[in-house]
């Protein structure tokens, strides 16, 4: 009888312990993102506790990538422990598939009332020949480091909910990331205080609306491909725009070819400046050890040519 009682007590202890053990996630957890910036944030915050995957191919645009054409990839998203979205309808494919909402974190939801809408955008194609339009919600939220901080915080909250036992370390990692983003903000605020803060600017692509609004940039958007020489008609249109908006600088997501940069300088007296939104980190950049933060630091440094 004594042996039976001991067995029952031991069984009860095991039964009480089992739910806690079963609820504890294996390390590392699987985290899937829809593009590079949120993948970088998740890796900085989670560290060794998560296997962070961004399956967007190197030759694809994260905005227009058709993930739904790859069922095996969608299945991996569905099986992940956490799915991180930029929000603001950035990744178009998300609305066409079924994702487990209890695993999804929409990182830009806290400032959704402040989303920017792009009006009067035309349907067009660039050098890749893929037809698209930028009309509708502007999803380039993270380009403004203020928004990036909020989005990283949403990722931190979601990770801490899944891995509460590692909450303290992940919050420390977030604090370190926040300090890095604050340093970018501090430099941008210094530029904002310069006498020529209202300098007219042009953007080759509508990727800078959020950061421009925050730091009061006087910017007009175009839609140009850094690898494709504009037509005489396009050059004429830009020249006409300069009569009302006398810009001397143009921001590019990727520095244009030498021939194109020279043409803009010779024909329009426009100096080309690279400011990469870092939607994707290229293979060459990865080989050189670059990451989201190093690219953003270069971007901010490149702006010194405008706000000296």
TrEMBL record:
It comes from the Bacteria. Gene3D superfamilies: Nitrogenase molybdenum iron protein domain (3.40.50.1980). GO terms for biological process: cell adhesion; metal ion transport. The keyword Coiled coil applies. Keywords: Coiled coil, Signal, Transport. SUPFAM superfamilies: Helical backbone' metal receptor (SSF53807). Residues 167-194 form a coiled coil. One of its GO terms (molecular function) is metal ion binding. The keyword Transport applies. PROSITE patterns: PROKAR_LIPOPROTEIN. InterPro entries: AdhesinB (IPR006129), Bact_metal-bind_prot9 (IPR050492), ZnuA-like (IPR006127). Belongs to the bacterial solute-binding protein 9 family. This is Adhesin. It comes from Uabimicrobium amorphum.
């Amino acid at each position: 009888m004594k042996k039976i009682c001991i067995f029952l007590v031991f069984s009860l202890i095991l039964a009480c312990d089992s739910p806690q053990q079963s609820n504890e996630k294996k390390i590392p957890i699987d985290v899937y993102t829809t593009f590079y910036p949120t993948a970088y944030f998740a890796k900085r915050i989670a560290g060794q506790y998560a296997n962070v995957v961004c399956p967007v191919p190197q030759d694809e645009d994260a905005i227009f990538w058709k993930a739904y054409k790859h069922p095996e990839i969608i299945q991996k998203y569905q099986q992940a422990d956490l799915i991180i979205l930029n929000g603001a309808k950035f990744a178009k494919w998300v609305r066409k598939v079924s994702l487990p909402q209890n695993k999804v974190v929409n990182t830009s939801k806290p400032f959704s009332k402040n989303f920017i809408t792009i009006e009067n955008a035309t349907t067009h194609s660039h050098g890749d020949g893929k037809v698209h339009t930028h009309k509708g919600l502007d999803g380039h939220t993270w380009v403004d480091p203020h928004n990036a901080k909020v989005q990283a915080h949403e990722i931190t909250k979601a990770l801490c909910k899944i891995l509460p036992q590692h909450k303290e370390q992940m919050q420390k990692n977030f604090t370190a990331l926040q300090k890095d983003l604050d340093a970018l903000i501090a430099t941008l605020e210094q530029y904002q205080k310069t006498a020529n803060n209202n300098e007219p600017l042009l953007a080759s692509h509508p990727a800078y609306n959020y950061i421009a609004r925050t730091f009061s940039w006087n910017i007009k958007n175009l839609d140009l491909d850094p690898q494709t020489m504009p037509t005489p008609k396009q050059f004429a249109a830009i020249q006409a725009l300069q009569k009302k908006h006398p810009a001397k600088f143009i921001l590019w997501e990727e520095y244009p070819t030498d021939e194109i940069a020279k043409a803009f300088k010779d024909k329009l007296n426009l100096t080309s400046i690279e400011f990469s939104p870092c939607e994707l980190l290229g293979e060459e950049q990865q080989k050189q050890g670059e990451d989201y933060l190093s690219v953003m630091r270069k971007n901010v440094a490149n702006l010194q040519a405008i706000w000296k």
